[in-house]
Amino acid sequence: MRLLDGFDLALDTFSERVHRVDDDRWDTETPCAAWSVRDLVNHLTSEHLWAPWLLRGATLAEVGDRFDGDVLGDDPVAAWDGAAAGSRAAFHASGALDTPVQTSGGPTPAEEYLSQMALDLAVHGWDLARGIEVDDRIDPGVADLLLGYAEEKSAAWQNLGIFDPPVPVPDSAPPQDRLIAVLGRRP
Length: 187
Fold this sequence. Notes:
The protein has helices at 3-18, 37-55, 60-63, 76-92, 110-132, 140-159, 175-182, and strands spanning 101-103, 106-108.
């Protein structure tokens, strides 16, 4: 599976789950200890609002704080849909993956940025599913695609406080369980 295809599948899955959030579930807890369902969707929406800017070459200073705080407003689903559509179009634009983007970690290859975004969609899609109590499956091809990347990066991310320490699972566990576990979640 190509990385862009994995991103698209993870984006579609996350979107489908956002559309399944009932009005009374936005304040429900997720496996991300500090985030409710709304907080989690807000986080992803903000990230995807940034993507078109960064992929066009904007600096962090140029984007500024425009996507800080509550970006969901009164219609979280519509806010997510708009951000997701803009992000998808930006990643699919001709030449989008050819030029490094500015991130908080400095200049980052666009393919690395795409990997980060795909991983965030897949793992937070699992978190969202758990929060709203729906099927939490990650597409097996997506899980397999992202597992090696997550294993390679997880120690550095833990040092930054981005993810909890890995949860032990057998080497024979399916890729989804190993992916979730390496990022500090209990499958």
